[in-house]
Amino acid sequence: LDAVAAQELRAQHDDLKSRVAELRGFFDVDAKRRELAKLEKQAAEPDFWNDQEKAQKVLQQRSRLERDRKS
Known about the structure:
The protein is mainly α. Helix content is 80%, strand content 0%. The chain is globular and about 40 Å long.
């Protein structure tokens, strides 16, 4: 595996871990609030946009959590 492929696999792994955690906590409101606070903290970091792909995923996940919270 070259470095790019390994990085892509890590990103996919992180994304899948995040999705599994989200599914486990689907009905756990407190967990959703904690996750949302964590994502908002990440988005406020000064170097947040240095990795645009990761930043986009964070914002997408935050949007999903906000949407779930409203429904």
